[in-house]
Amino acid sequence: MNKFIFNKLLQNNGWNDNILVSCNNKGIITSIENNSSDSSATKINGFALPGFQNAHSHAFQYAMAGLAEVHDISHTSDDFWSWRKAMYDLALSVSPEQMEAIAAMLYSEMVRHGYTNVAEFHYVHHDKNGNQYDNLAEMGSRMISAAEKAGINITLIPIFYQKGGFGKEATEGQKRFISPSIDDYYKLLESSKNACQHYKGANIAIGIHSMRGVDPVDIAEVAKNGPQDIPFHIHISEQLKEIEDSISYLGKRPVEWLLENVELSDRFHLVHATHLTAQETIGIANAKANVVLCPTTEGNLGDGLFPLSNYQNAGGKWSIGTDSHIGINPLEELRLLDYGQRLISHKRNIFNSATEGNSGNYAIEMATLAGRKAMNNFESQYFKVGEKFNASILDANAPLLATSSNDKLSSAIIYTADATNQLGTIVNGDYTPINDLKNRDEISNEFKKVIGELGNR
User: Rounded to whole angstroms, how far apart are CA atoms 265 and 254?
Assistant: First the structure.
């Protein structure tokens, strides 16, 4: 049994002082007590908030983070589609062993920044020639192994990827991604589900790459008759060209078509959804579907800004992800999300609702609860007896945090803290200080070796 005493613990009613959390050897919380002085507990001089949920990750892209910023000046523009070419080149070259090493390094960095859960939107399924591995979930299994090595919970989302665009066959650059039919995808999903059994911190979700990546008729079929008890993730309306192509092919915008042809619910997670009409924005919110926003990647790719205020005003829920991992700090994601909205609205009270006027509390609530749903966790209490103990721990000695009152602490964390204030992370009841990350030296050395082999940096 592990016991921890924190200076403060963030619960649904706010920050509480001197809290003892006990958990069993499976990392399940057995008790939460106020004002404890248990001498057998580990005293952590920190502020504990719910572990951050990274609701959208493409792990292999971490190997190219920061490399797409050197531009050929003879070209007049550099956008998502030119970036995608560099990404495809990387996807075509990585072996399963290299994939695992890259993912382990990324996941270790996520733990260092306070993430306890990651949803891996995984579409590199086949070998370098585009052929299936004997184990259909070979590459997904590598993601799970990497998560276990780094000490993070993972929701593996094997992605159905079928087309090269609306009505177009897949290209050579996409050959490692492709499941030609629904039946092929279901076999991959089942194999991936079985792979999750090998790590207690793993579970499964279903995913469609995009409206352009799968025949829309098949998207509707999978949504209606595929597994109904796990989350459903899909990229949608990220790029203006995608919307133009959708209108040409379907006569509808992507979200417009989805709202008319799929019965959305709170198990659906629409990734990016950057370019929406007012009707689409309200439609997603009314359907109780969630959006997953990845501000640093969306900013890096020049995607645009999601209509957050209108979505929130309609009761919409959102989470965050780090996507291509140009940034990994959840606090940076939340700040950039907020500040982008402030810049286009000329208002400061963006992160709020009818019942919550504290921007820090609201940001944590959205990112936590909708993020959990992306991992098939519908628990609304931040910490609860009978649930796994996952927490992000901030240093109680950080000057701006140490001097903040309980009603201002969440906002002080969200708007002023950085990676130097991260004290450690608790995943499934195991506390990892940032200077003693699980298997860190092994993971780092293997990553450096792999990057040398790839020669892309």
Answer: 17
